[in-house]
Amino acid sequence: MKKAILSVLALTSMISACYYDNAEELYGTTPCDASAVTWTSDIQPLLQTQCVSCHSGASASAGKDFSTYTSVKASLNSAVGRMNKPVGDPLLMPPSGKLSTCSLTKMDAWVAAGAPQN
């Protein structure tokens, strides 16, 4: 009888020890709203935090200056192409790692809308 009780207790503790929390199921995911992407609210802050430290001023990396709308617009196709490279590609920008899916979605939506200065 003691062995049966111990076996049941051991089995119960093993089953409860295998509990797995999935953060997405518990907390949901933050939706990425790319329906109203603007230069001022979305794109410029993204470039400021991810690109401008290397790509600005007279000594901008690769001669690409992303500190103003006009300069971004002039290099837009090559910049977006580099941001969408797969992880591990030596041409991926920024070199610190791939941007979030939401950031890339917003950038692509902004370009698709004609990259307005809004």
Secondary-structure map with pairings?
Blueprint: H1 2-17, H2 23-27, H3 39-50, H4 69-74, H5 76-83, H6 101-112
Helix pairs in contact: 3-6
Radius of gyration: 24 Å
Overall tally of structural domains? 1
Major β-sheet profile: none
Q: Element order, helices and strands?
A: HHHHHH
Terminal CA distance reads: 76 Å
Please tell me about this protein's structure.
This protein has 118 residues and is mainly alpha-helical. It has 6 helices and no strands. The chain has one domain. It is elongated. The mean pLDDT is 86.
Which key terms come to mind for this protein?
118 residues, mainly alpha, elongated
In short:
The protein contains six helices and no strands. With 118 residues, the chain is an all-alpha fold.
